[in-house]
Structure formats: C-alpha cells, structure tokens
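Thread: Modeling a multi-component assembly for a lab meeting

Hi all, long-time lurker, first post. My supervisor asked me to bring a structural picture of a complex we are working on to next week's group meeting, and I have zero experience with this. I have the sequence lines for every component (686 residues in total). Could someone generate the structure of the whole assembly? Inputs are pasted exactly as I received them:
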Amino acid sequence: MTNTLNIVQAINQALMNEMELDNTVVVYGEDVGVEGGVFRATVDLQKKFGVKRVFDSPLAESAIVGTAVGMAINGLKPVVEMQFSGFSYPGFNQIISHVARMRNRSRGKYTLPMVIRSPYGGGIRALEHHSESTEAIFAQIPGLKVVIPSTPYDAKGLLIAAMRDPDPVLFWEPKRIYRAFKQEIPEGAYEIPIGKAKIIEEGTDITIVTWGAMVKDVQKAAEMVKVKGIKPEIIDLRTIAPMDRDSFVESVKKTGRILVVHEAPKTLGVGAEIISIVNEKAFLYLEAPPTRLTGFDTTFPLPRGERHYIPSPERIAKTIEDVVRY
Amino acid sequence: MRLEDYNPLDNIQYRILDQNGIILKEEDLPDLTDDELIYLYKTMVFSRIIDEKALSYQRQGRMLTYAPNVGQEAAQVGSAYAMKENDWLVPAFRELGAWLIKGVPLRNIYLYWYGNEWGSYMPEGVRVLPVSIPIASQLQHATGIGMANNIKGEKDVAVAYVGDGGTSEGDFHEALNFAAVFKAPVVFVVQNNQYAISTRGSLQTASKNYALKAIAYGMPGILVDGNDIFAMYKATEEAIDRARRGEGPTLIEAYTYRLGAHTTSDDPTKYRENEEVEQWKDKDPILRLKLYLTNKGLISDELEEKMKSELEQEVVSTFESIENKSDTEIEDIFKYHYEVMPPQLEEQLNEYKSFLEGGK
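Re: Modeling a multi-component assembly
Sure thing. I ran the full set together rather than chain by chain. Output:
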C-alpha cells in the first residue's frame, strides 16, 4: 500500500509507524502535543498514543535535550523537537557536552538512542533565528550524526532509521520544502540507511553535491544547463555526518569537476570539507578548481533580504557553466 | 520531620546531631543498627583517607587535578545512604562519599581523576552516571531519568547533586521546573559548601538560602545541616519516599563547608580567612559522628586506628595498581563515539597506527 504525502506528512507518518512498532519511543517538545507542532509534524500523535508518550513541555530547549539524555539512559527512545533551528542554541550545551559524549565518556555503558528533530533553513519569510542552517556546527562534533532529507520518501525512511539508530541523530528538516511537493511512499515502516548519499541524476560533466531544500534548486539549475549541452551528476548527500565520501569521490573521478551547493555560510562550511576530501582523494582527476556556491558569511537576513541569500537556480546554473568552461 | 510542614523561608537548619555529638531531636533519629552506624562512619573515614592520599599523590606529581571532598562527607554519605540499590545517582564531580555508598569502586574513582575514561565505566548494577564537568547540566539527566520512570511505571528515584554555584546556571532552573511540572521522582541535593571556586554565596545569590528556591518551582525545599549525617539521611529518605509515592521532586540544601581547595589547582588562602576555616573545623562531620559513636561505646581510639590503617592500605594498593596501568590504548580513544565506527574515523585510526608502526 502506498500513499501520496509531502515531507511534513511523511515525517508524521514515520513517527506514527515507529511509535506503533516500538513502545519505547516517546515524543515531546514545545507545542508538539495538543497542537501537533507549529508545522504539524506531530499532529494526531497525542490522540493516538496518549499524553504519556506524546506531550508538550515547558519552553526550555536545554531541558528538552537534557531530559532526553536521561530518558535515553533509562531505556526510552526520545524524539524531541527544537521548534526552529535557531532555537537549538539554548540546547547547544546539552547537545555538545552530553548528547555527543555520553557513549564515549562512559565507555559504551550509557548509550543515547535519541533523535533531535528541527525544521531548518530559510526561505519561508520567518522571523530572526528561524532560518539558519546549522549542519556544519553540529557535524564537526564527534558522536553526533546529522541527517537532512530532501524528499518525502527519504524523510520517512531516514527518520525511521534515525529512531532505530543506537546513536543520537540530529534530524534537520528542510522547512522550505515541507509542503513543496508530494510523493508516493509506502504506508508501512521502511528504512533508508544513514550515512549513504544518493545519486539523483547521473551525468558526465560535473558533480554537484547538495542536500535538503537546495536539491530542488540544483535540479532546476541542471535543467537550465542541459539545454546548453552540460550533463551534471547530482548527489544528494542526505547524511552530513558521518559523510558518504565515496559517493562524490567516485563521481569526481568520472566527471573531473565538483561544485558544492549549500545554504549555510561559506567559510568553514560543509562545502569546504567536501572539497578537502576531493583534493585528498581525487586531485589528479580534477579539471577545474573544486568550487562552492553557498550562503554568505552573514547573519541570515530578515524576509526582505532573504532572496539574495539563498543561492538561486540562476546563480547555480551560472556557476555550473563557469566550472565546466574553466 | 515532615517536608510539607517545613518552610525554607524561616531559614532554620534542620539538625538532629549537634557538633558535640548530642542528639537534639530524639524523635527524628533514624532507625539505624549499630552495624549500619559503623559502616557509615567507616565510609566517611574512607572518603577522607582517599582525599588525603590523592592530595599527597598530587603534590608528589603522581596524581592529576583532583577535587577534594574534605568536610562534606556527611552531606554525601548521609544522602546517598537513603537510596535503594535501583535508585539512580546523578553526580556532579565532588560526590566521593555518595559514590562509595552506591558501590562505585575506588579503582574507578582514582582512574577517572588519573585521566582514564574507564573510571566512568560503571560496574553492572551500579546505577551511577559519569562525572559531569559542565555545571548543573547533569540535573536535567536526573529529571529525564525520573520522567522515564513515570512513563514506564517504575518506582526508582534519581538523586542528583549540584554545588551552590550550580544554582546560578539556567540548567538548574530548567531541570527543577521540568521535574516539578512532570512530577518526576527526583531529589536535588545542593551541596552548599560556601564557595564556587573562589566566589562566595553572597555573590552567588541574593536569596537567604538555596532551599527556598524550591518554592518558586512548586516543590518542597529544606535547609539541612549538611555536616549532620542523621539529618541528611533523614531528609533525603523522606524526599525519596515522597518521590517514590509519585509526589514529585524535592530540593535539599546541605549547608556544609569545603575545608580544602576547590581542586588542586586553586589556592583557597587567596579568597578566605584562616579563622573561618578553623571555625568550621569544629563542625567537622566525622568528628561529630565519632563523638556520638564513642558515647554509644561503638568506637574506640584503638578500633579507629585499626580501621584507618586497613583503609589506608586499601587506598595505597588501589592507587598503585592504577598508577602502574599503562596509558589509554589507541583504539580506545576511537572506539566509543558510535556503535559502529564510521569510515572516516577508521581511516584516521589506521593512518595513525601505520605512522606508529613506521609504515607509510
């Protein structure tokens, strides 16, 4: 059986499926219970599973994450929500100091099978602190996994995998495309492995690595350059940490060129890491400088300025041409 | 004592045993056997010997930074002794007496302070969380453990410790608030040892005491003479019983004194007068219990000497056994970040191993 869902509905269904199968899964955070989350990702969960397993919490990100640490140590699988990516900052200490380190600190005695979900990225004309892309900040921390889906099918399969993962997973949801399109997906539970990228379009002239909401924009850009005879290979990274390096290294060996597109700031971003890996592992295959097209090293602008910030399909297309014609 | 009747705003310390070893509240005296009393005394003495030895090893350059507990033995031993085996101990980093009571081997404690993560690996059945260096953040783990018990329908209680300085952290507030809202079975013990490194209480809070903060969260709070092992035991026992009955968390302030330094890295003579320290020496928790036990005929100088020399031998042999243990293995540094080591990490490990082996 299949059904046709958008990303936010797919996330809701992943939670439904897994909570049915595993009664140790509990869901909580600000407004996730009665209202079903500000984006409705947790809608109807409380009705179905009761207030013991799905509940609203006081407004306190540090405690939402910190109590999840205790819950996970004590045999449950908490799936908590940071209402917006920029609201993860008050929870930062718990994420870095404890979520990431408890397994190592206790030599494997206390493990944290927990998921921190958060809508991430810009493009929805939101307030300050609602739009930033924080994947690089967390991806550098040993002990954390960072996952970002780009389609309803992936969102469901990756979230179920995250809930079944013995290690803590930060599940960052690209809210710009929460409702952008629908996809037919299985009704039952299924997993997409964490740590594996996906080639979503095969090509021969340039490798483009991207993730999250940028995938759609890269695909639009690819259509623009195809009419000019350029065939890009597009890789959706899907997991930022741990990174599937073989996916783009092998691709670059074929295409000789690489462009990384991300929404987060340029300096010390994930793009820099990908390019370093390419330099280490495929340097002699390169026919053009590995290139990044990213957000700026600025605070994410308020809505009147955000169209300048996120790389547009036109800018992506122009950059692809520049790299290919280098 | 009944927690419900106690008002922390009165700022009166709950006390059973005075500093001369005299029982002030016969009706509150815990029902402990002679063997139990001797065990508690022995554990406090053990704690002190462990501290003294660690300090001397540190001065000899044989131990790394160490956080001594001298003066706080009753606050720790008394509160921890009220816990049952399945209750969870969530420590900060200065809970030596509580660790010993909960069954953490001395070997672990010395290993940790000696710079080896295996110190945090708790033996089977010992429900103790590792040391938490980020101040007050561990309180939320205790709240989460308690919330999970409520969800699972289990009756175990978490007892969490924090220092007076930790009450200024946001995490203290958030942990107590969550615990109260969700009626989590947690007992929060503030070890008010008067100083957060060098910062005294008057610069930490404008409250009359720390226990009264409980009022704002909607839970009972009690100010206890932290150098009185009976009062600490009794107050914690009542708070634990309350939590186990499903009535939620309690805040206990153990009013005590850190006779030593914050850690071996600071110099307390810079921030406090010797007279103050001398006054507190008269309130020594071990001395107080000793006077009581001597009056009861349970301890003599002879017995105590024998006890001390046995304990000291145990401490020396434990330290020497970990001192001779070699450093952390390379794999050990990499192994415990994820259940399955990611390829990047494996590559880094192999590259380093190959460097050490002289390969390419």
